[in-house]
Write a structure and sequence with these properties.
Elements (H helix, E strand, L loop, with lengths): L1 H21 L7 E2 L2 H11 L4 E8 L2 E9 L13 E2 L4 H14 L17 E4 L10 E4 L10 H5 L8 H10 L9 H9 L9 H14 L3 H13 L17 E5 L2 E5 L8 H5 L1 E2 L1 H11 L6 E3 L2 E3 L3 H4 L24 E7 L2 E8 L4 E7 L4 H21 L2 E2 L4 H24 L1 H13 L4 H33 L5 H7 L1 H30 L1
């Protein structure tokens, strides 16, 4: 009977797995229409909601919204959502425009544009939020040009950047891309990407143009394109969607708290309709556009070209290794939101997905799969259905719940465990057996505490910056909560067992 009780968690987990595996999947085996793809896959991927925009040759060929935001409010093409790290695509277009008109020289040193002391608004959320602080910009880096900075060809960890980072960054709200992080650790000379790059470039653009970043962005990019729902000052808009987090298939509201100073890198708010206008411009037949609202001075052809020879970065665009067709992209997540924008320059086509749900799973798995599927429909006419991530998450949630219940049961029966130890010792099991059990219990407690303490340090080492548990919850709330809860519950069980053992030994 005792062994059967130990097998119960595994039996329940296997039963749940059988139900998840054999439950009929009513979605089509293949999709040939965008509506079918996004309608079915939003549910299959446990997604709260997103807006999709697809353009080709400067014309909008598909645009639709699906689902809700974190407060269950229906999304539409004019619902403002945080763009996250994809903000670099729009900020990069602004940088390109200033370079085209000669207001910025990409080959000049960074110190040429930034003064020795720079007054910035405190990006924090405490009582001093919004007050001006003095930050020392990275002027000590002789020979560091704007082109090198914008192409992510230099590390942002030199001493000259530390004070600037501390005063202007706080935490890096942008996505942590696992593939890029692993590459930066394994490949010699690989530079890890940092959201700080475009925050510094935002300050450069302000100094060069003599206006705030938002004013420059409005006059040079947004107004000429009619992108009236886009801004780097979210407080100027009403009706900004509330984001959501994902916890093993369940969503919960996740209020975004992205500081204004983050705007050039990951703090721009936009709509699906506005992204359609932007993509239509950069996939159109001409390289220069203008309208009655103002002149758009932009060299579209240069946006997605490498800033450095054999580089992997354009003006905000990531340039992967060549595949079947030339493709550039950008994407990632902030608190409660994620996005992905993909452009096929030679085919003059592009897709953007704005999602009211954040986390590494959505930004690094779900959105890339959805854009890949949309690419297949766009260029080949159909695509197979995607792996059922939602079911996988539900199964993991059930397995974790069963495990936690078993730990709680072991905690409730800690007195019986301590009495059994005493009885075994009294019946001749010996001190060695008792010592081994107690040593394992103590080591288990120490090991769990060590894991709790070391996790943010280890992840921070991989990322290349200091992290706290708040940052980990932003990156992936489900996995972080699971880790903390399991470790803390395991600690509680071991502590209760030890306390009962000490109490019985003294009786």
């Amino acid at each position: 009977m005792r062994w059967f009780r130990k097998l119960i968690p595994y039996i329940v987990t296997l039963a749940a797995a059988a139900v998840v595996i054999y439950l009929p999947d009513l979605s089509p085996e293949r999709y040939s229409k965008y509506d079918d793809l996004f309608t079915h896959e939003r549910q299959r991927q446990a997604n709260t909601g997103f807006s999709v925009t697809i353009v080709k040759s400067g014309k909008l060929i598909y645009q639709r919204t699906f689902g809700t935001d974190g407060l269950k409010q229906a999304l539409d093409k004019d619902t403002p959502m945080y763009l996250g790290p994809s903000s670099e695509v729009i900020s990069g277009a602004l940088l390109s425009s200033l370079a085209l008109t000669g207001e910025i020289d990409l080959d000049k040193d960074l110190s040429y544009y930034l003064p020795r002391r720079l007054v910035l608004a405190d990006p924090g959320f405490g009582p001093d939020a919004g007050q001006n602080v003095i930050a020392a910009p990275p002027t000590a880096e002789a020979g560091l040009t704007l082109r090198q900075l914008a192409s992510y060809s230099t590390k942002i960890d030199q001493p000259a950047f530390r004070d600037y980072r501390a005063k202007t960054l706080g935490l890096e709200a942008g996505e942590l891309d696992p593939g890029l992080l692993i590459q930066s650790r394994l490949e010699k000379g690989r530079i890890p990407r940092s959201r700080l790059v475009y925050r510094i470039l935002g300050s450069v653009m302000e100094q060069a143009a003599g206006s705030s970043f938002d004013e420059i962005l409005q006059s040079r990019i947004l107004i000429p394109l009619g992108m009236h729902g886009t801004t780097s000052r979210p407080d100027s808009l009403q009706g900004v969607a509330v984001g959501s987090g994902l916890f093993f298939g369940l969503s919960f509201p996740y209020e975004a708290r992205v500081p204004s100073i983050a705007a050039p890198a990951d703090g721009i708010v936009t709509t699906a309709g506005d992204l359609g206008k932007f993509l239509a411009c950069i996939t159109g037949p001409t390289t220069m556009r203008s309208d009655t609202a103002g002149a758009l001075r932009l060299s579209v052809a240069s946006l997605h070209e490498p800033l450095l020879p054999k580089g992997d970065t354009g003006f905000g665009w990531r340039i992967p290794k060549p595949g079947n067709r030339k493709m550039v992209y950008q994407g990632g997540s902030v608190e409660g939101f994620c996005s992905r924008i993909v452009l096929w320059p030679d085919d003059k086509a592009g897709i953007a997905i704005l999602c009211s749900q954040g986390g590494a799973i959505q930004s690094n798995i779900v959105l890339p799969l959805l854009t890949q599927a949309a690419e297949n429909i766009l260029f080949t006419g159909s695509t197979p259905r995607l792996p059922p991530l939602g079911r996988i998450l539900v199964l993991l949630g059930i397995a974790i719940l069963v495990y936690l219940l078993s730990i709680f049961f072991q905690t409730l029966t800690a007195l019986s465990w301590a009495k059994a130890l005493r009885d075994k010792k009294e019946t001749g099991k010996g001190d060695f057996y008792l010592g081994a059990i107690l040593t394992r219990t103590i080591l288990g407690l120490i090991g769990r505490v060590a894991i709790i303490v070391a996790t943010p340090l280890l992840v921070g080492f991989v990322v290349g910056t200091n992290l706290e548990y708040h940052d980990l919850l932003v990156i992936e709330p489900g996995a972080t909560t699971f880790l903390l809860f399991v470790m803390l519950v395991g600690c509680m069980r071991n502590v209760v067992r030890l306390v009962w053992h000490i109490h019985i030994s003294r009786c």
